[in-house]
Amino acid sequence: MGRHERIAELAELDRPGLEIADFATGMGRTVRAMLAVAPEPTRVHAIDSASSLDDEILHDARVRSVIADLDEPLPFPDSALDRAISLNVAEHLADPAAHLAECYRVLKPGGVLVFAHSDWDTALFASPDDVLTRTLVDRFVSVVPRWAERADGFMGRKLLGLALSTEFELDGVHTWADCHRRFDKGSVSWKVAMGVLAAAKDDPELTKRATAWVEGLATFAAEGRFLFSVTDVAVVLRKPAAQ
Ligand SMILES: C[S@@+](CC[C@H](N)C(=O)[O-])C[C@H]1O[C@@H](n2cnc3c(N)ncnc32)[C@H](O)[C@@H]1O
């Protein structure tokens, strides 16, 4: 079971008629995982500041694509949703606590939020050079990528602290690390390695070493001894049921 399937399981999609939101949906991977298990009928609001949903998700009648900035109030009235997912976006938001407060507002009493994030500082790469891997991962978690206004490679471990200062009830805290052995273009490992490479860009000498490091990962993959994982953290929160 992968990251998105685990999130779908934690979302308790246990009855028909649920109104679900996936905040910062990206290509809609979590949406796909939820649609695979949610009893019909169901509706998933797929929210992101940019439109990058896979075609198959975009054209699914159960999905409503919404372009919105999560740094602004959410485009839902109070108590509109049964379930909400916020996966791998908190590090990019100006005020993650305000985002959590908005999630609380738009959930119905008894509604569930799965607040989840990868903790990038835990990135594990099997490579020919462990010391260089450490240097590059350290750099990766301390540099804001060009496409983002802000980032925090330690966000996974901060979710619980953020959650505890809200009015949500804490249902559970989960961590896992998925095993990835592929390193072909477009794979999860390759994408993270490209992020690591990009983080070295301002240092020509380190870029040279990082490029060789990526080649080393590809060699390991060809030999079958490549491994990548990162620890994900998911905090399951419930809006207290109305008295
Ligand atoms: C790392 S991707 C995660 C996508 C998806 N949740 C997943 O795990 O596959 C981060 C997403 O957050 C979106 N994003 C970043 N800042 C945002 C903001 N202020 N409002 C809405 N979406 C935002 C990006 O467009 C991107 O799709």
Automatic annotation (TrEMBL):
Domain Methyltransferase type: 22-115
Keyword annotations of the record: Methyltransferase, Transferase
Any one GO molecular function term: methyltransferase activity
SUPFAM superfamilies to which the protein is assigned, alphabetical: S-adenosyl-L-methionine-dependent methyltransferases (SSF53335)
InterPro entries: Methyltransf_11, SAM-dependent_MTases_sf
Claim: Transferase is one of the keywords in the record: yes
Highest taxon of source: Bacteria
Gene3D superfamilies assigned: Vaccinia Virus protein VP39
GO BP term, pick one: methylation
Name the record gives this protein: Methyltransferase domain-containing protein
Annotated source species: Spongisporangium articulatum
